[in-house]
Amino acid sequence: MTDHQLAKLQRLKEEALQGGGEARVARQHELGKWTARERIDHLLDAGSFQELGMFVKHQIADFGMDKKRYAGDAVITGLGAIAGRQVAVYAQDFTVLGGSFSQMHARKIVTLQDMALEAGVPIIGLMDSGGARIQEGIRGLAGYGAMFSRNVLSSGVIPQISLMMGPSAGGSVYAPALTDFVIMVKDTSTMFLTGPDVVEAVTGEQVSTEELGGAMVHNTRSGVAHFLAADEAGALAMVRLLLDYLPQNNTDDPPLASANDPATRQEPALLHMVPATDDQPYDVKQVLQAVVDQGSFLQVQPYFARNAVVGFARMAGHVVGLIANQPAFLAGVLDIDASDKIAHFIRICDAFNIPLLTFVDTPGFLPGVNQEHSGVIRHGAKIIYAYVEATVPKISVILRKAMGGAYIAMSSREMRSDLALAWPSAQIAVMGAEGAVRILHRRDLAQAEDPARLEADFVQAYREKFFNPYVAAELGFIDDVIDPRETRPRLIKALAFLRSKVQQNPPKKHGLMPV
Ligand code: HXC
Fold first, then answer.
1. Hey, which of 33, 35, 100, 174 would you mutate to test ligand 1's pocket, going by the most ligand atoms within 8 Å of its Cβ?
2. 133 lines ligand 1 (CB under 6 A)
3. Class of domain 3-243 as given by CATH
4. Model confidence at 194: pLDDT above 90
5. How does 405-417 read in b/e, with b if 16+ C-beta sit within 10 Å?
6. Less CB within 10 Å around the terminal CB: N or C of the chain?
7. Mind listing the pLDDT tens digit for each residue in 203-247?
8. β-strands 75-82, 50-52 pairing
């Protein structure tokens, strides 16, 4: 090895570390954003990063591009560790040609995706890109095709996490959309297929970048994002937290934590969390938090479809997926967005060997012309499909209302649930009392001297008959009615029994889940 050879290596590395140069790095910082390298440093365990493809450059000369050849070609890729676990990571470098996606940029990401899939390790993408590099034409577009193919083939095999840390336009939004989790940084990240100028030209609508595809929009309305971070540090910390609930791949179990909360803990507060009256709201998150290992609940999509709550937690140190109706929001009805949210979460848990605990308190699917016309039938069907298809342990606890189709859909016993429990406050019926009485006794009520009085009597009789868990328990559709205080120990014991569960679906190429 000559000094000259070593010096050349050193010089080329230093050049690559410059990114798009001082001015563009300064602009990145002015925008409140870190550079791609700074982000990787914050994300990974210190000293763990091994970079790959540092010297890759684009191969075109058109549009003066021969004078804009930057080492790395706008993306940094490599291997590293998070909390001692292997991960693959790529970070688009906005300081180089706006992080735009070229043939060689794609090649670097695709190479990493192949390595991550073969090694069975999670892959994390830090996105900050103006989309397909305009000067490259078809080359970048073809690269997206190659990248999306890996996203799809990796789906359900290794966890794929996308962090949106700047603009992401065009093809740059479909790659995250094909991954399992999308984390957006408030105020600095946006996602849209076509920007405000194109929107105005095509539809005449005037909209700002933030209104069109900002972090709040995708976290609250579109459901494209799963987490909202206040800043870049928060987004990177979220990845580390999320990985703590996910396995390396689908043949592995999520990390076991040392149990910090007694498995036998009974929780007296659970006696009073669900109001005695039917239609009084309460926050179901309090129930979940009282049941799971203390401080272990991580809500997913907390701002989207808030009538449903989904998230990860631990029970005696083992990761579980929680699904609950949220009576504090729209009475916990199931609608189109809640159906999509629940179905997607079930499939994530099933893919990654995470048992499902479902807490039921819902008056049913949301009636309405808009819901029907927008396809609540096919969206609601996704919940049923996902629960039935899932082969991980599945346990449901009916807290209060379990009405009609929503009773069936929410992990009911007959839908391949392993265990169906109910609190004494459970109400399992085809529909609510008032609606049922008006249908069953329309003629009696029309002819009655005092219809209000008669209706009240009928309602009372209906409630006595159905508004309890015992008819269902007598028929074996509920395995046990439990004292709410015992919910945690009962679930932990059942989960221990079900840990060795093996269940297989009929062989097929793939099912046809409603979309
Ligand atoms: C080449 C690009 C680029 C692109 C940005 N740049 N996007 N270069 N191809 N797609 C360059 C700019 O020329 C500029 O170069 C630098 O990156 C920074 O960009 P600015 O515009 O100065 O930054 P900013 O004002 O922050 O705006 C960021 C932006 C905007 C919102 C992303 O650049 C933008 O709208 N870009 C185009 C987005 C887009 O429509 N992409 C194509 C999508 S089509 P200099 O040298 O001045 O620093 C697509 C295929 C779809 O992706 C496939 C679907 C499956």
1. 100
2. yes
3. alpha beta
4. no
5. bbbebbbbbebeb
6. N
7. 999 999 999 999 999 999 999 999 999 999 999 999 999 999 999
8. antiparallel
Residue 334 DSSP class: B
- Report the percentage of the chain scoring pLDDT > 70: 100
Kindly state the average pLDDT of the residues 306-330.
Answer: 98
The predicted model scores a pTM of 0.95
Give 252-262 pLDDT, tens digit per residue: 999 999 988 99
pLDDT at 279 over 90: no
Among the atoms of ligand 1, which is closest to the Cα of residue 167?
32
Q: What pLDDT was estimated at residue 492?
A: 98
Say if residues 219 and 184 touch (Cβ distance below 8 Å).
yes
The closest-lying atom of ligand 1 relative to the alpha carbon of residue 24 is 48
Is the pLDDT assigned to residue 464 strictly greater than 90?
A: no
User: Could you list the active site residues?
Assistant: 170-171, 405-406
Q: How far does residue 92's CA lie from ligand 1's centre (Å)?
A: 13
Both ends of the chain: CA-CA distance in Å? 60
Which residue in 485, 482, 458, 488 sits closest to 470, CA to CA? 482
Ligand 1 and 166: CB distance under 6 A: no
* pLDDT attached to residue 507: 97
Q: In terms of Cα–Cα distance, which of 399, 421, 418 is closest to 472?
A: 421
Asked if the domains at 3-243 and 270-426+468-498 fall in one CATH topology, the answer is yes
- How far does CA 194 lie from the centroid of its chain? 24
- Residue of the CA atom closest to atom 22 of ligand 1: 98
The whole-number pLDDT of residue 276 equals: 85
Tokens for 166, please give them: 């700047």
Closest CA to 232 of 91, 110, 95: 91
What are the domain boundaries of the chain? 3-243, 270-426+468-498
Q: Is 170 in the pocket of ligand 1 (CB under 6 A)?
A: yes
Q: For residue range 27-58, what is the model confidence (pLDDT) as tens digits?
A: 999 999 999 999 999 999 999 999 999 999 99
Minimal CA–CA distance to 402: which of 365, 360, 436?
360
Contact 98 CB / ligand 1 (< 6 Å): yes
Architecture of domain 270-426+468-498: Alpha-Beta Complex (3.90)
Residue 501 identity: K
Report the distance separating Cα 174 and Cα 170, nearest Å: 8
Q: Is 213 in the pocket of ligand 1 (CB under 6 A)?
A: no
> Which residue has a Cα nearest atom 20 of ligand 1?
98
Cβ–Cβ contacts within 10 Å for residue 352, how many? Answer: 24
374: which 2 tokens? 């927008």
Q: Which atom of ligand 1 is nearest to the CA of 131?
A: 52
Ligand 1 centroid, distance to 122 Cα (angstroms): 28
Check if 327 has its Cβ closer than 6 Å to any atom of ligand 1: no
161 in Cβ contact with 87 (< 8 Å): no
User: What confidence score (pLDDT) does residue 484 get?
Assistant: 98
